[in-house]
Amino acid sequence: MDSLIPRTREEIAPGAVHVPDWLGLEEQRHLVRACREWARAGMRSPKLPTGGVMSVRTVCLGWHWIPYRYSKTLEDGTPVMPFPDWLADLGRRALADAYQRPADDYAPDVALINFYDENAKMGMHQDKDERSEAPVISLSLGDEAAFRFGNARTRTKPYRDLILTSGDLFVFGGPARFAYHGILRTTPRTAPNIGMRTGRLNITLRTSGLTPQE
Ligand SMILES: O=C(O)CCC(=O)C(=O)O
Ligand SMILES: [Fe+2]
After folding, report:
1. If pLDDT is split at 50, 70 and 90, which confidence band does 212 have?
2. Which ligand 1 atom is at minimum distance from the Cα of 145?
3. Do the domain assignments include residue 185?
4. Which residues does the record give as 2-oxoglutarate binding sites (predicted)?
5. How many domains does the chain have?
6. β-strand 169-172 against 16-19: which pairing, if any?
7. How many CA atoms lie within 13 A of 91 on its CB side?
8. Beta bridge partners of 145
């Protein structure tokens, strides 16, 4: 039945906007190539303070995320890769299209690139390690994912479940900035031909609110 519902821009909650098919196939291929380059530095499953290990594999730009803080260096002391200007431009374009207003002052300085194999998921969580209330931009590539977007008070209902497909943009800011969200599952073999055989990539752009001395 899903295929009968038109995929158009939709405000999922105040401040949270889903823009299906925001990236064209060429832009998706370009981002997949960029992710491949970044992945050469190594993608690792973040280790949680509880002793658990996340099922996604991650590489960061700008600031390295260690649950639950940001650092300029990786666990082994290597400097984090730089956050490229073109990605900030893409973020401004994404925000302007999602909110339908100019976003000239949006200045993301962190990207988390997550790879999901067919068994990976992400539990309900808030993105709250940033010291900024600037919106988070999420771009999806590859296999489809079931995404749950909830509320800022609890990790339970009310929430909305939606499918994020390759090329989709999802923005959460304003009253939705600290809403709980997670990935329930991905569906293998649902990706278009964008240069990845299997799995899903998600890129989030964020504003750390940090200065490099910290
Ligand atoms: O993979 C997604 O769509 C969400 C990723 C996410 O929530 C995160 O990286 O904090
Ligand atoms: Fe998140």
Report:
1. confident
2. 3
3. yes
4. 114-116, 200-206
5. 1
6. antiparallel
7. 26
8. 164, 186
- CB-based pocket (< 6 A), ligand 1: 112, 114, 122, 127, 138, 140, 147, 164, 181, 183, 202, 204
* Phi-psi region at 102: left, alpha or beta (left = phi > 0; alpha = psi -120 to 50): beta
pLDDT tens, residue by residue, 85-94: 999 999 999 9
**Separation CA 203–CA 140 (nearest Å):** 7
The answer to whether residue 47 sits within a structural domain is: yes
Phi, psi of 92 (to 5 degrees): -65, -40
Q: Could you tell me if residue 131 is inside a domain?
A: yes
Radius of gyration of the chain (CA): 16
What is the distance between the alpha carbons of residues 129 and 48, in angstroms, rounded to a whole number?
14
- Please, what is the average pLDDT of the chain? 96
Reported as half-sphere exposure (CB side, CA atoms, 13 A), residue 120 has a value of 20
What pLDDT is recorded for position 7? 87
Amino acid at 5: I
